[in-house]
Amino acid sequence: MIRITFLDKLIDEWANLWIATWFVLGSIALLVGFALTTEQTPLDLFYLMVSMLGLLCVVGLSFRKNRLGNGFGMAATAGEVIVQGTSGAVGLMLAPLFNFFTHAYALRYWSKNTDGDGQMIPKSATKQVWLITILFLVVGLAAFPALNEFLTAQGFGIIQKDGSSFLGKIDFFWINVVAFVLSITAQITMILRYSFNWWLWILVNAVWLIVNLMTGNVIFAIQSCIYQINAIIGLYEWQRNAQ
């Protein structure tokens, strides 16, 4: 792994300053998006609060802090469940519910794998883990449309087919499918402490940015950009410590 002096300082002696700065700037960006692009209803305000909890969650995860990352992760995903439920998107409650329980599991699992500073110890993936991950992605992408169709028939559809496309070429439905399957895979590998999970999150953030821009969800689009910066830091921090 190539060592970068600036990033080494950022995740060591400047870590607390970076976390505070990143959170403040991220919060400002979300507040601006909230003020300029929403009607500022109670539900919009709750969306904003959930997004801020998400900021605390992901920065805690990137720095391997168990309670900050997984504790706030549970709070943020519980908030997402409420948001989707109150907006009538019952199917969209399934993903944050899944993430809620994975964060609950990680609170205990990570605590059993910590270093002298109380931070979780990440690990590098073997070839077998990589193969299983790739297989999981392939099966997930192949099986999801049928699963989604079944859930839709039961009134719990996760993704709706509206016929829209990205740049007039890529079906919006498939963009959502890729985003969903990648997110689930990234979440599982992160909870299991594999450092390569951040490569997946970088892809996830890029895809979700497209999704949020196409749906006009400016707050979450801003959040995707903020998360991307954190994912890059998380990738470097986890891979360095895994080695």
UniProtKB/TrEMBL annotation:
Query: Has UniProt tagged this entry with the keyword Membrane?
Result: yes
Give the record's membrane topology.
Multi-pass membrane protein
Localization of this protein: Cell membrane
InterPro entries according to UniProt? NMN_transpt_PnuC
Does Transmembrane show up as a keyword for this record? yes
Residue ranges of the TM segments: 17-38, 45-63, 83-107, 128-147, 172-192, 199-222
> What is its biological role?
Required for nicotinamide riboside transport across the inner membrane.
Q: Which family does it belong to?
A: Belongs to the nicotinamide ribonucleoside (NR) uptake permease (TC 4.B.1) family.
State the NCBIfam families in the record: NMN_trans_PnuC
Cited PANTHER family: NICOTINAMIDE RIBOSIDE TRANSPORTER PNUC
**Which protein is depicted?**
Nicotinamide riboside transporter PnuC
